[in-house]
Amino acid sequence: MLQKLFIQNYVLIDSVTIEPNAHLNIITGETGAGKSILMGALNLILGERVDSNVLINPDKKCVIEGSFITENNAAVSNFLKENELDIDTILLLRREIAPNGKSRAFINDTPVSLQQLKALGNLLVDLHQQFDTLDLAKADFQRQVIDALAQLNDTLKQYQSIYKSWQSNSQQLQQLQNQKEQFEKEADYNRFLLEELTALQLIPNELENLDQELKLLSNSEGIKAALNGIVELLMESEQPIIQQLKQMMQQLQAYQNMHTDLPSIIERLTAAHIELKDIANEVNRLNDHISFDVNRIAEIEERLAAGYKLLKKHNVSNTNALLELQEQLTHRLNEVLAIDDNIIALQQKVHAQKNEVIALAEKISAARKKAIPPFQQQVNNLLKQVGMPNARILVQLQPMQPGEFGADEIEFLFDANNTNKFESLKKVASGGELSRLMLCIKSLVAQYIDLPTLIFDEIDTGISGEAAKQVGIIMKQLAGKRQIICITHQPQMAGKADAHFFVYKETDKATTKTQIRLLNKEERIMAIAQMLGGEQPGAAAVQTAKEMMQV
């Protein structure tokens, strides 16, 4: 509920603070005193766009701030979490308009966009003004009203759970069917590619290894000549190097004890002799394994040509990439084989869920049909009470394809003059009629729907006497469960207030400013008496005011 509203430097308001009661708050005042200004200021913290000419003092900024108590309001808590905003015991909405006309919005002192402020404002305040397009004319609200009276909350949750699962599985089925169609288009080509790769029977790194082997074979004669030359020098020449090293070692060994450096030289010669002898043996072994093989070269060249052709065809660079592609093609072709089983299983699931959805939708439709006649009767009776004796509401329920909220299209139709020509609300109902109709409906569903603060701006247009009294009674009953703020000219409604605020103009030198104050009991009696009998009410008007206030 709205705990406090602070307005500074807005139109004719220098600075005012309003602290509404938790139940029925009535605002009265002379025409032109500034009651609509209050609603305009409130609209700003509910996200409406601002007129740059609203500053009473062009050198100061305008500030409108609303404090709300939102404990146990799940919708508000979810909004704050989703938008990463602080959650406090008191929710603070603020709007600032700078002298240059620039506007800023805040939620709990955090800057936010106008869209965010408006979205949160819709969860906090339900504002009904003359000639507004009200929620009442929206299909979603109309459905909520019928569902609340039919007490469909649990059934709808069950339905929506199954419906969402059905929709999800239906989408998945469609994707699988599209995938199968695509697979079937590609299957023959993929099968050809796979057979081509499989026929080559590649092994990891094969083409790279064959390329290396081909280079070796192509240069085998030169390599063998080089190796033979090394063996010749080391072991088979007239003076082989290995033999020469052995002789050097033998010559020095006779003198190794005669100089301290000779043993190390002999040791190094011995190591060189052993190493060169080992090299000679390794060269010999290698030489024995290298040969020029024309057939092998032709075989490798043929295999490499087939492999390089596939590398180029698939735009990859190595053997392993071809093997990976082969695995992918195998997987795709296996998917083609498996997808039919998946489609059949999902088709059965979707069919079963569709039947569940239809069964629950029929149950919901039956409950709605049952709730509609008493709802129509109750609203039509209330309309007579609030001064609309010829007005009637008719709820039209049309079947449609199952959707998120069932298989019904709900529309409220209205006949204001007992013509039996029912039409859409927004086509035939005036602002005052819509406001009173909304009051009647919300008084019926208040115990079922978590309504925010309700604000009615001049709901009493076109009524007086007993009708105004009945509007006040209904509003008083509704205010037992919800905070209501109502701007009115009717004393019958003012007499029902839990808190009565009076708007007036105050002239200071050449400046006229709008002020508002909470009236005490005696002031309330006088204000209502003046609404009845003019500026100087008589004793009868005062007594009637007391009776209206039941004091």
Percent strand:
15-25%
**The CATH H-level homologous superfamily of the domain at 1-131 and 450-519:** P-loop containing nucleotide triphosphate hydrolases
In terms of structural class, how would the helical and strand content be classed? Answer: alpha/beta
Please, what is the average pLDDT?
A: 87
Number of strands: 15
The percentage helix is: 55-70%
Query: Helix segment count?
Result: 17
CATH architecture tag of the domain at 1-131 and 450-519? 3-Layer(aba) Sandwich
Please tell me about this protein's structure.
The protein is an alpha/beta fold and 551 residues long. Among the domains are: 201 residues, Rossmann fold; 112 residues, no CATH class. Helices cover 56% and strands 18% of the residues. It contains 17 helices and 15 strands. The strands form three sheets. The chain has a six-stranded antiparallel β-sheet with strand order 2-1-4-5-6-7, with helices on one face. A six-stranded mixed β-sheet has the order 8-12-13-3-14-15. α14 links the parallel β12 and β13. The radius of gyration is 47 Å and the shape is elongated.
